[in-house]
Amino acid sequence: MEIQSCVTILNEWDIVAARQLGRNVAKELGFGTVDQARITTAISELARNIYLYAGQGQLCIDRLNEQGKTGLRIIAIDEGPGIPDIRKVMEDGFSTSGGLGAGLPGVRRLMDDFNIDSNPGEGTDIRATKWLR
Amino acid sequence: MDFREKMDEKFIGVLTDFMQSQSEESLYAAQQFSRLALEHKIPPEEIVNLQKSAMQELMPDLPPEVWHSFDILLEVMTAYGFAFREYQSLIDTQKEFKNEMEIASSVQETLLGTSVPTIDGLEIGALSVPAKQMNGDYFHFVHDGDHSVNVAIADVIGKGIPAALCMSMIKYAMDSLPEYRKDPSAVLGSLNRVVEQNVDDSMFITMFYGMYELKNHMLHFSSAGHEPGFFYSKQLDEFLDLEARGLLLGVDKDTTYKRYEQQVEIGDMIILMSDGVTECRTDEGFIERETLVSFINNYIDLPPQEIVNKIFRDLEKLQHFQLRDDFTLIIMKRVK
């Protein structure tokens, strides 16, 4: 069962909208305040990457219900320049946006599952899930 | 994860205690709590949450603005938590690097290993200590039956891993030139071509190569820009520079190396070193070659290996136990 809602990221205000969407869903699903803050931080980071590097894209929030487990999935999709060396951006210390500094590896650590697909010239698709405990 | 389960309870205990007493003792308890929390890698946003939950339990009637203020703190601390996790992960990576370096350094020791030969009538002492884990200095002995003992000492300009990798190449280049071994000028000539062809332009190697003939006690030697050694003449009771001219390895592929000779009498010593010995920097600047001579003079009647060990200890102390460059010292003494 999946119910998805999306925000188009074009400017910095859309980052706020994406955060708001994520927070509402997280609250609704029953995530505590600490996890809410983590989820919105992850959303901020992913939305900011779209805004800074791809120019535009979509940030969607999925409500997941798999085998009795409830979860929230962030999907960040853009058709920007893509990432030529994914291993490099997944390394610590390779600062991306200069925002929070920890970039994608930081997002991976805040969430439970993390998946990234990217092809130069085609864009990037990042999915990160947090499960309710 | 025992701590995690009891964390709320513990925190509320510390907090209540402090609210009542405001004592240093309960602050100390808070410090101990934070040590445990760090040990269990509890990120800062969780601590903010502990505070908020504890306050909700202890003082539920606070105005709503107070609770909102916690949410701001939580948001801000989540970003610090982001950094905290990165720091944890970098620490782990650093541990991995350190382990790898230790393995690399023991592989290097095996690769570059040489044994100091035992020769009737010629006592030899040698010591090489890297400043970091990998050694950019190198020495090597070849004992050629009754004919001669050959000694090589080399220093890559630079230190650490690049220098160490470079040294391994030199060692194998030397091993593959057995027919030239006897003539120092030919050995350096061949190695120069190897280095010139295979090593990055920014890296240079200095090397001293000596062949000590056991029958007539004549030392033949050549140098490729290496720190000059000393020759101690027992008869004159004087230390003379073992001067030899020659270009660093790897600069010009057509360079040639002149061969020099030194007659060695009973009691005389040949002292070879890397610039980590003479460029040992102390509070008063680099030590002078004369200072080194005076150190050697202090121990002149001891066996060479002991002299070498004691000098290393003295220089280590002078530098407050922080080596800035790799240290290699070799002393050969004719005793009969």
From TrEMBL, chain A:
Domain Histidine kinase/HSP90-like ATPase: 34-133
SMART domains for the chain: HATPase_c
Molecular function in Gene Ontology: protein serine/threonine kinase activity
Record key words, sorted: Kinase, Serine/threonine-protein kinase, Transferase
InterPro entries to which the protein is assigned, alphabetical: HATPase_C_sf, HATPase_dom
Protein name: Serine/threonine protein kinase
The species this protein was found in: Jeotgalibacillus campisalis
From TrEMBL, chain B:
Entry GO MF terms: phosphatase activity
Keywords (A to Z) from UniProt: Hydrolase
Annotated EC: 3.1.3.3
SUPFAM superfamilies listed in its UniProt record: KaiA/RbsU domain, PP2C-like
Protein name: Phosphoserine phosphatase
InterPro entries listed in its UniProt record: Bact_Sigma-Reg, KaiA/RbsU_helical_domain_sf, PPM-type-like_dom_sf, PPM-type_phosphatase-like_dom, PSer_Pase_RsbU_N
Pfam families, sorted: RsbU_N, SpoIIE
Location of the PPM-type phosphatase domain: 123-334
Domain of life: Bacteria
Coiled coil residues, start to end: none
UniProt keyword annotation of Hydrolase present: yes
Keyword Hydrolase: yes
